[in-house]
Amino acid sequence: MCLHKMMLEQGVTSRIGGTNQLLSEGLISGSEDLKIVEKTACCVAETSTVEEKQAVEEVEAAAEADELVYRDPLVGATQATRKLVETCKELTSQFRRSTAYKILTRTTQPSHAITLVFVSFILLVLWPNIVGQPSSSSKPSLADQVTTKSRPAVFVLLAYFGSFAMHFGAQMWMTFVSGLALYFNLPRHTFGRVQEILFPKYFSMGAALSAVTLVTFIKLQQTAHPELTSASFHSWDPLLLLQLVSLALCAALELIVWLYLAPPMLRLMHQKYHFEASETVGQEVGHFSGAENAQLQRSLHYKSVHKRFRQIHMATAMANMVALACTFVHLHFLASRVELL
């Protein structure tokens, strides 16, 4: 009986041990399977990440290829110009916030200083001819004759013809094309805003180009005729003196308009537009006298501002036409002197 009982206990113990061994083996195999699954998942994740990176790189490469296909020199030049303009605008904005800009724009002293520098430069160029020196009566040497027959420097010719052509083209465009086309096709206030931007640039550029044309013209005449370098203006050809007067008058008129007429005219235009905007006026195209609106007609302040604006605007227009006439005088001189090669 005891022997049978001992055999039963050994059987149970062996079964329990076998079961524990099986369980441990199963756990080990399960943990190994989990490790395999985890490794597989990691491999799959790494593979998917690599594939995503490759896909992104392919998309970027395709985008760059498309950009290269559709990119041409014009697009590149446009983008570069845009960056340059944005940089210039940023620098201009910083300068406008400075104290120096406030002094230059809110006082009249800078205008006087610019005028003084401009006139001084012209007088410095013309001073030997204004003072005049007695010309030598001796016979010119062979070297002087060779110098007389030599051609002027290419840079001087380039500056002379380039400045005159640019000035004449700008005058014709602003006076007869841009101004008239915008006036008859844009609302009046919009047209005024455009002219507000163009007017100072137009007259400042015109004054500078006229000065360059005048100085280079004198230099060319002195190169072609060395005896005129120190000779008084009384010994100059009257036709040449007419060119000097016309070019100097053109530069002076444009300088006066730029520094002394355009700023008050633009301020009056802002005041005038403020009155008209309060009465919902200003979107009409073409001429507007103010008589169509009863409220503006009764406003004495508006009438005063409108009158002063018209006076300065008329003076500016007349100065521009006289400057254009001076340019035509010099154009006629060129047409009579230039010989086609």
From TrEMBL:
Lineage: Eukaryota, Metazoa, Ecdysozoa, Arthropoda, Hexapoda
Transmembrane segments: 113-133, 153-186, 198-220, 240-262, 312-335
Subcellular compartments: Membrane
Signal peptide positions (record): none
Pfam family, one: DUF4149
Keywords: Membrane, Transmembrane, Transmembrane helix
Record has Transmembrane helix as a keyword: yes
Keyword Transcription tagged: no
TMEM205-like domain mapped to chain residues: 163-274
GO CC field: membrane
Protein name (database record): Putative conserved plasma membrane protein
Predominant cellular place of this UniProt entry's protein: membrane
